[in-house]
Task: inverse folding
């Protein structure tokens, strides 16, 4: 070791001139960047070496890229707090592509046979259809395809490829779940800060830019935390509530039950202050799905006794109406009395007449914000979809919507088949929790584009591969120790 240290010192001494010149050039480059780009130049000067190290780490180990991508998914909403526009979306795409490249560079460690999987075939088939949509003659601006194709099919395909072939351990799964819950916990706290303490200047500016009409109703703020909007925040909080409820049912330790009970209260109230009525259906669909998947008569009876009183109170009483958040949840069960829901139905009737002669839709990228940006005069851009499935219907037609729903049905159906084959108790309970959560979000997407929004879409893409390949981590029940 001592000889190696001497040799290293000699090498540094011999190359001192090179290091000196390199240091001077880097200092000059940093000065030029700061002088021409100000704060952004300083960020680039400091960030470039860090980015280089990060890129190297991702290329050496794709798991690092996956974790970075997950964290960036949660951090995307923080761009509203920045003084200058940050290309966070580009950074996320870059990390995902680097992770995929890392998978190929480390091909010998990957299990490529897992790509022969029904869910992967469904993802590939849907991807091919969305690629063929480039030929749709109804699309007025072809480059807009790239803006929506990522959310429609590309990101799910990339994530599916990575998750299937990469060697993931049980500890990795635990880390993914903990990362999601920790981010959700901080999101809940930030939502409470918005609701009960106040907004920061960047958030007030965001509301003033036109978002107040959907986030301040009758003088009540719909908290959105650091997510894209209140609907996304509500979906995430309802999803976390559902998952922690399942863990509360299953865990035996007193301390763990207390911990999950506290988290349930935090996440549920965070969902309530979001004012997102449709997120209630994450619970309405996910809860019975879990009981069905669990196939435990005693647990089903307990679950029914917990759920029925809550539904009766919400449907047939006015208890808690003085609290705006509770009143808002109650109205989710009365859609025919909701003016916004009736407007959505009216818009869908208009779209039905327009799309009757367009079985392949108006083209990917013609509706929602992208359509308003690139083809504002197009009919598809003038009616808000207000739903993920309606957006797919508009852009890919009834053929595309049918294929997409068949893909979701394949994932859910195959997931049910696979989780029921798992022998390991801990793994079985975890996978049915992820599957039930997935079912809840897919139902909610009738009213919101949650399946296309970060970070929910990232976690759902990952979950869809986990619960459909759960046998990868299965062990015999008698060899399984008690695990959290």
Result:
């Amino acid at each position: 070791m001592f000889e190696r240290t001497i040799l290293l010192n000699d090498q540094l001494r011999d190359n001192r001139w090179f290091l000196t010149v390199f240091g001077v050039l880097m200092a000059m480059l940093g000065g030029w960047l700061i002088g021409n780009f100000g704060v952004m130049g300083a960020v680039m000067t400091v960030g470039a070496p860090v980015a280089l190290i990060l890129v190297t780490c991702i290329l050496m180990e794709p798991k690092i890229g996956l974790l970075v991508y997950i964290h960036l998914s949660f951090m995307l909403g923080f761009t509203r707090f920045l003084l200058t526009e940050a290309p966070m979306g580009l950074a996320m795409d870059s990390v995902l592509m680097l992770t995929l490249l890392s998978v190929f560079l480390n091909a010998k460690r990957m299990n490529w046979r897992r790509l022969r999987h029904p869910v992967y075939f469904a993802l590939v088939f849907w991807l091919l259809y969305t690629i063929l949509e480039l030929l749709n003659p109804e699309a007025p601006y072809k480059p807009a395809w790239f803006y929506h194709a990522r959310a429609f099919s590309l990101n799910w395909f990339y994530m599916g490829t990575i998750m299937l072939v990469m060697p993931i351990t049980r500890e990795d799964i635990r880390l993914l779940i903990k990362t999601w819950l920790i981010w959700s916990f901080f999101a809940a706290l930030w939502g409470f800060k918005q609701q009960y303490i106040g907004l920061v200047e960047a958030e007030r500016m965001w509301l003033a830019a036109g978002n107040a009409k959907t986030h301040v109703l009758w003088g009540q703020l719909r908290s959105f935390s650091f997510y894209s909007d209140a609907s996304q925040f509500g979906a995430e909080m309802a999803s976390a509530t559902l998952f922690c409820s399942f863990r509360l049912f299953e865990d035996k330790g007193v301390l763990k039950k207390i911990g999950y009970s506290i988290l349930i209260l935090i996440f549920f109230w965070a969902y309530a202050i979001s004012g997102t009525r449709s997120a209630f259906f994450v619970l309405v669909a996910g809860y019975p799905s879990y009981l069905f998947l669990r196939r435990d008569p005693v647990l089903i009876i307990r679950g029914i006794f917990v759920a029925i009183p809550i539904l009766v109170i919400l449907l047939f009483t006015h208890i808690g109406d003085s609290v705006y958040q509770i009143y808002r949840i109650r109205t989710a069960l009365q859609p025919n009395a909701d003016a916004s829901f009736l407007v959505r139905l009216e818009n869908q009737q208009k779209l039905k007449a327009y799309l009757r002669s367009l079985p392949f839709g108006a083209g990917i990228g013609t509706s929602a914000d992208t359509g308003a940006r690139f083809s504002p005069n197009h009919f598809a851009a003038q009616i808000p979809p207000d739903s993920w499935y309606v957006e797919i219907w508009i852009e890919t037609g009834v053929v595309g919507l049918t294929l997409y729903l068949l893909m979701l049905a394949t994932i859910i159906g195959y997931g049910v088949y696979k989780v029921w084959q798992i022998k390991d108790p801990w793994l079985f309970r975890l996978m049915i929790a992820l599957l039930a959560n997935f079912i809840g979000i897919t139902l909610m997407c009738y009213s919101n584009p949650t399946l296309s929004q970060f970070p929910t879409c990232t976690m759902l893409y990952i979950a869809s591969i986990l619960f459909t390949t759960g046998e990868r981590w299965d062990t015999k029940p008698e060899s399984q120790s008690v695990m959290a």
